[in-house]
């Protein structure tokens, strides 16, 4: 198998690629939404709401869909989760609200809460109709570091409460992982930017792109110049495998490739290996494996060191990979990367023995870690916070993936940003 | 399969399901299709007097109350009586009766309040070979403004007068169709009986406006911007109809009056309701207008299967539930039921809890030992049946009798708290 790696673009025709990257869960029509909304039992103290990290009053928004009050429904959703549109697309609802739905008890078919949430929020975001107005100006200024879900959520809530916000964003565009990290078929038609534009349109938020903490602006300066600082900086660095051969050509961080894919104008121009090996068992591993298949990779192996029960990818995501033609291998930690300059394969350990999977490309998807930050206390590579998202530094809050209880979900990051904003507002009011 | 052959006032039909006087029975084309589908009989859409035909609106005649999946729950209409020439209808009725001798063909009629009109027109109808007449004293819209339909049905004296005219002009059976737009159905029923009616049929439609158009903020539907109340029917009106049927059936003076039951009959169980509460046959309109004539298959098959399972004949069913209907004052106040929640069936939606907590007796828990759990607090439960009604799971909450059958019953008529109680025994 030695020789030239088989990596090229246009493995599939453009229309095939377009079909592969179309909306994973198409939106509901009005009649579909009304019928689905009718299935909601309007539970007391609803388990779905308890299961939602942002605590959206789900029965209330579904009731408003039933009564054709779509705008009111969107207000119910967005008042708790300003990224209700993106979350309706990317939340693993099967392990959150929809898992808690009481309809599972007898019929094993929950109300399609995610799709209903999308039905309610899409029209508002598409038309740009603002549902919230800013409070009277407070004269307070808050620096939000990071333009991802946590930062945007925090900024929106602060702006709504009357504060002025500056977002310092290291990337060219805001959105964070919504823009650069999530699988393309979950957020078609540039939804991440449409939603970010909607959020920013509340007013009072200045965005400074290409402005990275550490390189372009320091935390010390921000603390001096602003009344409060929120850190929503995510996890900037991919974890290394820590095995021989990791530096060979063709061994790529999955997040880097996904970012490239998400920004590609023409997916058919994206080079993809004929045989792809993905190492990892989380959402990113699933996303890169499925998208590789969708770009035309003939064989995609996803290899995880433990069993399916330990995968952080949900059962739905695992099934999605398998129906997309990805072969999942369990309980096989990688031992070494094979090849001369370019990778030719990976050797894995399994059942006391070992096996080799040949590869034109190897994607590493075993998690990310904090891109070193000076100042706030950290633990296990994440920023330590209290219940109101205060860090060890005075007037510095943090949330999203970069903090200790971050769980790599958009919805959790949104909740962190919201809670921090509420506490910052309280703090600024006491000054 | 139980035989559904039905005889109503001597009029025979292969089953007790007739199509009510309405658009489905306006002309031979529809009636032929209905009989081909298996309907037992029809009441031909109401004929008026000879002369220039009735004119209907050419905008919306119907409005519907929909569920979210657009199932029609209620329905209303502002269509008037037949707008075709009298002779056309008479010719078609004659032909239909010839072609379908085993089916019931009854003709609905609405005439002005003068005896000459009845004396003139009823023999013309009778001459077609029709099996009977149904006097339309029920339509609440349009014709009532001209002193007919419900305008007659709301005045017992008029009902009696017109019924007498009809009886003296016709030899075939006369059914009087009653309007529900009255305070009590008994005076109209008694008036029909006093006038010599062979039977009553009920209910006709209920005065109604369906809704407002949320864009124009006018009533909906309208005829070019203006609307008028229509007659309400369909599933939503069945309980109103059942009460009126039962009232007539359980009242001593009217109890012997045959009843043709009408009002929201959609499947065979609805027919069982009407028959058991005293109707001898039933008439259907809305369900056919919503689903087509094919529903007769479920109606007839369902009723027949039900009778088989019960080991009953059709006649055994008629009036079977009437003795169970009484006045509130005769209910046994010593009888006690409590709700019981089957924890194996409970899906923990908590609807029972919240409705009991918010609107009733605070008799259902939401948490037991720190767990989400819904249990009835017997001491607080008054047995109201609200939780049973709202529970989305069939049979999850049931009512269980806790009083002893051996305890002497106590009705309000004898209750110590009743100042007007019977004191004979004291």
* Oligomeric category: heterodimer
Main β sheet profile of chain A: 5 strands, parallel
What separation lies between the terminal Cα atoms of chain A?
68 Å
Query: What about the largest sheet of chain B?
Result: 8 strands, parallel, barrel
Q: Mean pLDDT of chain A, as a whole number?
A: 95
How many helices of chain A? The count is 17
Residues in helix, % of chain A:
25-40%
How many helical stretches of chain B?
Answer: 13
Helix content of chain B: 25-40%
Overall morphology of chain A: globular
Strand order of the largest sheet of chain A: 4-3-2-5-19
Gyration radius of chain B, to the nearest Å? Answer: 24 Å
* Strand runs of chain B, count: 20
Report mean pLDDT of chain B, rounded to a whole number. Answer: 96
Helix/strand structural class of chain A: alpha/beta
| Gross geometry of chain B | globular
Weakly predicted, low-confidence segments of chain B? none
Widest β-sheet, arrangement of strands of chain B: 3-4-7-8-9-10-15-16
List keywords for this structure.
heterodimer; A: 431 residues; alpha/beta; 5-stranded parallel beta sheet; 36% helix; globular; B: 426 residues; 8-stranded parallel barrel; 4-stranded antiparallel beta sheet; 20 strands
Could you walk me through the main structural features you see in this protein, from its secondary elements to its overall organization?
The complex is a heterodimer of chains A (431) and B (426). Chain A is an alpha/beta fold and 431 residues long. In chain A, 36% of the residues lie in helices and 17% in strands. In chain A, helix 15 links the parallel strand 9 and strand 10. Chain A starts with 6 loop residues before the first strand and ends with a helix. The relative contact order of chain A is 0.15. The mean pLDDT of chain A is 95. The model of chain B has no long low-confidence stretch (mean pLDDT 96). In chain B, the strands form six sheets. Chain B has an eight-stranded parallel β-barrel, surrounded by eight helices. Chain B has a four-stranded antiparallel β-sheet with strand order 5-6-14-11, with no helix packed on it. The radius of gyration of chain B is 24 Å and the shape is globular. In chain B, helix 5 packs parallel to helix 6. The interface between A and B is medium-sized, with 17 and 16 residues.
């Amino acid at each position: 198998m030695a020789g030239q790696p088989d990596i090229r673009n246009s493995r599939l025709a453009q229309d095939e690629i377009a079909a592969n990257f179309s909306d994973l869960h198409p939106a509901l029509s009005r009649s579909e939404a009304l019928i689905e909304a009718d299935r909601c039992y309007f539970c007391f103290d609803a388990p779905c709401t308890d299961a939602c990290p942002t605590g959206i009053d789900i029965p209330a928004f579904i009731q408003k869909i039933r009564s054709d009050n779509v705008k009111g429904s969107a207000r119910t959703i967005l008042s708790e989760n300003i990224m209700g549109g993106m979350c309706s697309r990317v939340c693993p609802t099967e392990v959150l609200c929809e898992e808690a739905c009481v309809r599972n008890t007898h019929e094993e078919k929950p109300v399609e809460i995610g799709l209903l949430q999308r039905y309610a929020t899409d029209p508002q975001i598409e038309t740009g109709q603002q549902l919230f107005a800013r409070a009277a100006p407070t004269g307070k200024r808050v620096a939000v570091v990071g333009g991802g879900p946590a930062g945007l959520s925090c900024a929106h809530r602060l702006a709504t409460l009357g504060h002025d916000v500056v977002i310092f964003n290291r990337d060219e565009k805001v959105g964070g992982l919504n823009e650069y990290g999530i699988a393309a078929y979950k957020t078609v038609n540039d939804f991440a930017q449409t939603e970010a534009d909607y959020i920013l349109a509340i007013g009072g938020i200045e965005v400074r792109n290409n402005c990275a903490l550490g390189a372009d602006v320091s935390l010390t300066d921000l603390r001096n110049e602003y009344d409060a600082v929120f850190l929503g900086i995510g996890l900037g660095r991919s974890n290394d495998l820590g095995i021989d051969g990791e530096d060979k050509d063709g061994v790529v961080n999955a997040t880097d490739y996904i970012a490239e894919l998400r920004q590609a104008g023409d997916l058919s121009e994206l080079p993809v290996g004929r045989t792809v090996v993905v190492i990892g068992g989380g959402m990113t591993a699933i996303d890169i494996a499925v998208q590789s298949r969708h770009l035309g990779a003939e064989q995609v192996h996803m290899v995880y060191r433990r069993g399916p029960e330990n995968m952080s990818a949900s059962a739905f995501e695992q099934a999605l990979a398998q129906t997309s033609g990805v072969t999942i291998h369990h309980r096989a930690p990688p031992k070494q990367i094979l090849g001369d300059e370019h990778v030719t394969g990976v050797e894995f350990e399994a059942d006391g023995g070992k096996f080799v999977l040949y590869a034109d490309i190897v994607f590493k998807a075993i998690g990310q870690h904090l891109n070193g930050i000076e100042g706030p206390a950290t633990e296990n590579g994440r920023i330590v916070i209290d219940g109101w998202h205060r860090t060890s530094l005075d007037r510095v809050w943090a949330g999203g993936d970069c903090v200790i209880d971050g769980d790599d979900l958009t919805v959790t990051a949104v909740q962190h940003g919201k809670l921090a904003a509420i506490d910052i507002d309280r703090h600024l009011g006491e000054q | 399969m139980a035989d559904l052959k039905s005889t109503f006032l001597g009029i025979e039909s292969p089953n007790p399901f007739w199509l009510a006087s309405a658009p489905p029975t306006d002309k031979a084309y529809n009636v032929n299709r209905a009989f081909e589908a298996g309907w037992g009989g029809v009441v031909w859409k109401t004929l008026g007097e000879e002369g220039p035909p009735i004119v209907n609106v050419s905008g919306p005649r119907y409005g519907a109350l929909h569920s979210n999946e657009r199932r029609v729950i209620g329905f209303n209409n502002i269509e008037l009586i037949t707008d075709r020439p009298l002779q056309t209808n008479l010719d078609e009725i004659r032909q239909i009766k010839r072609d379908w001798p085993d089916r019931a063909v009854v003709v609905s009629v609405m005439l002005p309040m003068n005896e000459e009109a009845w004396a003139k027109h009823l023999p013309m109808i009778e001459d077609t070979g029709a099996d009977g007449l149904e006097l339309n004293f029920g339509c609440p819209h349009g014709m009532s403004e001209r002193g007919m339909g419900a305008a007659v049905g709301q005045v017992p004296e008029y009902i009696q007068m017109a019924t007498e005219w009809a009886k003296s002009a016709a030899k075939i059976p006369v059914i009087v169709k009653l309007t529900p737009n009255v305070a009590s159905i008994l005076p109209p029923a008694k008036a029909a009986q006093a006038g010599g009616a062979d039977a009553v049929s009920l209910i006709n439609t209920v005065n109604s406006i369906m809704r407002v158009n949320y864009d124009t903020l006018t009533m909906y539907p309208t005829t070019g911007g203006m609307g008028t109340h229509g007659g309400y029917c369909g599933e939503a009106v069945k309980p109103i109809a059942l009460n009126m049927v039962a009232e007539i059936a359980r009242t001593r003076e009217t109890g012997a009056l045959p009843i043709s039951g009408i009002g929201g009959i959609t499947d065979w169980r609805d027919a069982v309701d009407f028959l058991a509460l005293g109707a001898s046959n039933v008439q259907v309109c809305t369900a056919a207008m919503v689903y087509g004539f094919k529903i007769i298959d479920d109606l007839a098959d369902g009723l027949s299967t039900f009778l088989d399972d019960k080991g009953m004949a059709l006649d055994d069913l008629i009036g079977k539930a009437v003795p169970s209907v009484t006045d509130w004052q005769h209910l046994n106040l010593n009888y006690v039921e409590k709700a019981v929640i089957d924890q194996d069936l409970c899906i923990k939606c908590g609807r029972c809890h919240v409705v009991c907590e918010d609107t009733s007796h605070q008799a259902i828990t939401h948490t037991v030992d720190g767990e989400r759990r819904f249990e009835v607090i017997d001491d607080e439960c008054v047995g109201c049946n609200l939780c049973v009604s709202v529970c989305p799971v069939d049979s999850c909450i049931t009512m269980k009798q806790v009083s002893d059958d051996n305890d002497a019953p106590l009705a309000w008529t004898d209750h110590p708290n009743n100042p007007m109680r019977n004191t004979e025994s004291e």
